[in-house]
Amino acid sequence: MSMSEAPHAAEIGARLREIVAAHARLDGPLLPILHAVQAEWGHVPRSAIAPLADALNLTTAEVHGVVSFYHDFRDAPAGRHLLKVCRAEACQARGGRGIEDSARDRLGIEFGETTPDGAVTLEPVYCLGLCACGPAAMLDGTLHARLDSDRLDALLAECGA
């Protein structure tokens, strides 16, 4: 199954039970389980919410609330590349708004969206820890500091955007 296809409840059942069992002894296992689920399928499938709630003796509302509260959890698969642009104050003061605009214009999408070809998902992040070197972004887990439109274009060109 490709990551762009949403798994159905029957398809995730056995693997989900393995993930829950591997984390069941932890205090507060929901977050580690959700991270493992997202690592497995590229997102937290809606079809996993009810079985997780049952396994952890939680309500579906509680599980959904955690998934929707934390920005790192997605309810749909991300693109092949993930670009996170820092929107914190330090990066904004160093020209971050221009990087945001360039990214949205170049990709033709807004934050939280994926390009139609599935190449890039654009997400906001509120501090990458490069405050003195902003504006900053993270592409596929690699930090990039002192960005300008030309450097951003070069990064996006490398990933086929």
Automatic annotation (TrEMBL):
Cofactor (UniProt):
[2Fe-2S] cluster
> Which keywords describe this protein according to UniProt?
2Fe-2S, Iron, Iron-sulfur, Metal-binding
A Pfam family recorded for this sequence: 2Fe-2S_thioredx
Does Oxidoreductase count among this protein's keywords?
A: no
Binding locations of [2Fe-2S] cluster: 86, 91, 127, 131
The entry's free-text remark on the cofactor is:
Binds 1 [2Fe-2S] cluster.
Q: Does the keyword Metal-binding apply?
A: yes
The protein's GO terms of the molecular function aspect are: 2 iron, 2 sulfur cluster binding; metal ion binding; NADH dehydrogenase activity
**InterPro entries per UniProt:** NuoE-like, NuoE_N, Thioredoxin-like_sf
Q: Report which superkingdom the organism of origin falls in.
A: Bacteria
Q: Which family does it belong to?
A: Belongs to the complex I 24 kDa subunit family.
For this entry, the protein name equals Formate dehydrogenase gamma subunit
- Organism in which the protein naturally occurs: Wenxinia saemankumensis
